[in-house]
Amino acid sequence: MARSSLLGLAAVASRAGAPTHAIASRAGASTHAIASRAGASTHAIASRAGASTRTMLMVLVLLLAGCRGQTSTDPPIVPLRNMFNQDRYNPQAESQLFKDGRTMRTPVEGTVPQEREIDPELAQGRLPDDTGYVEEVPQAIAQRFGGAQAMIERGLDRYDIYCRPCHDGTGSGQGTVILRAGWQPPPPSFHQDRIRQMPDGQLFSTITHGVRTMPSYGAYIPVNDRWAIVSYVRALELSQGE
Predict the structure, then answer these.
(1) Which of 108, 131, 193, 240 is the most buried (most CB within 10 A)?
(2) Whole-prediction pTM value?
(3) Total Cβ atoms within 10 A of residue 241
């Protein structure tokens, strides 16, 4: 009797547990489904937010790219302006700081630049007593180059840069600039007797100070290189001589 009762109770418990397990399973499935739908919604929202951000960035890039090449009267944006806006004077402007009212100052009297050539024969091509020009390129210049050959080679290099465009490679005065511009009168030929007989110092002075439409090259070509050009012109005259 006791065993029958126990079996009956077990059967009842088993039938009661089955609906409970089914309910729990259905509840778990519902929860999982709800969580899945919530996760899918969150992912969709995040995807849409990312797409929106990318779209905004693309629009911003296009706007910035569209500003390239545009002119504006607005001042440029400079975060550190302490070296952008500085007090200064314009050339030839008036100054209230100096008694003479000039902004462009002359060197202190009696001073010379450290690199300045003080020998008048070398610096100006003039004789020490200033009675005329030196006849030939000073030997001191050739020694600085290590010999006449090196000086002439240097002269050829500088001639091609500064002289050839107008004077031509042969010194005829029919350079590319002259022919294209139709420059009149053209530069004289280096093979004229007047140029051939000109003292080397005078040719050096012409390079230094310019003449007629030829500008001054004293500020652009160092002293030694000017003499090197003179030496090359003399060599060019010899190569084209009669």
Answers:
(1) 240
(2) 0.57
(3) 8
